[in-house]
Design brief:
Keywords: Cytoplasm, Hydrolase, Nucleotide metabolism. It is an enzyme of class 3 (hydrolase). This protein is α/β, with parallel strands linked by helices. Helix content is 38%, strand content 25%. It contains seven helices and seven strands, in the order E-H-E-H-H-E-E-H-E-E-H-E-H-H. The protein has helices spanning 12-20, 34-44, 48-65, 92-102, 138-148, 176-180, 184-193, and strands spanning 5-7, 26-27, 71-81, 84-86, 106-117, 120-133, 169-173.
Length: 199
């Protein structure tokens, strides 16, 4: 019998991607303090990609240590605009500020994925998407946020590309799965390689 697969995330978007792909898995959210892990990285000059990989690995290893023999998927995503790294907005005013800053500019979504087993990271992958927002009128931003509601607080960019968020963009370079936060094609390839799923 194949070892179980565990997603170390409570993200409904990541869960949906794996379900849609026909992968059988359990969910065990990691118990890590992301901001505490990130603080020393910011001081060390780590890149947004490095931050995403460190956080994804911490999540995968945390759950893996409590789930012997399982394949544990840890993932994280950072949004970078120049030197600034964005986090999920705390409230709708934070979401409004995010969208105002991103308006008319190209930002990057850096999606990291790590596979761990028996408390050790055994595979890492990073994908990046370049996202160019159109120039957004402040009034439109307010109406957009009123229409989407609190779901805007569930992503680092305050938008969901799979919904109304697509209207914010002028150009996108990168695959859909990277944008949603789970680079699915390389993950499925690795799960097949290690015999965790049929292939």
């Amino acid at each position: 019998m194949a070892a179980p697969i565990i997603l170390a995330s409570s993200s409904p978007f990541r869960r949906q991607l794996l379900e849609n792909a026909g992968v059988t898995f359990d969910i065990k959210p990691a118990e890590v303090d992301e901001r505490a892990l990130e603080a020393p990285l910011a001081d060390s000059g780590a890149s947004p990609e490095d931050v995403a990989l460190v956080l994804a690995e911490a999540k995968a290893v945390d759950v893996s240590e409590r789930s012997p023999s399982a394949w544990v998927i840890g993932s994280d995503q950072t949004l970078s605009l120049g030197d600034e790294v964005f986090h999920k907005p705390d409230d709708m005013e934070g979401a409004r500020r995010h969208l105002l800053k991103l308006s008319g500019k190209t930002h990057f979504l850096n999606s990291a994925i790590v596979l761990a087993r028996d408390g050790e990271a055994v595979w890492r992958h990073m994908s990046t998407a370049a996202m160019t927002m159109r120039d957004l009128d402040p009034g439109f931003i307010g109406r957009h946020l009123a229409a989407v509601g609190d779901i805007a607080l569930k992503s680092v960019g305050a938008y969901q590309l799979e919904g109304r968020g697509i209207q914010l963009f002028e150009k996108i370079e990168g695959d859909y799965f990277t944008i949603v936060g789970l680079p699915l094609l390389p993950l499925l390839a690795e799960l097949r390689r290690v015999g965790a799923i049929d292939g």
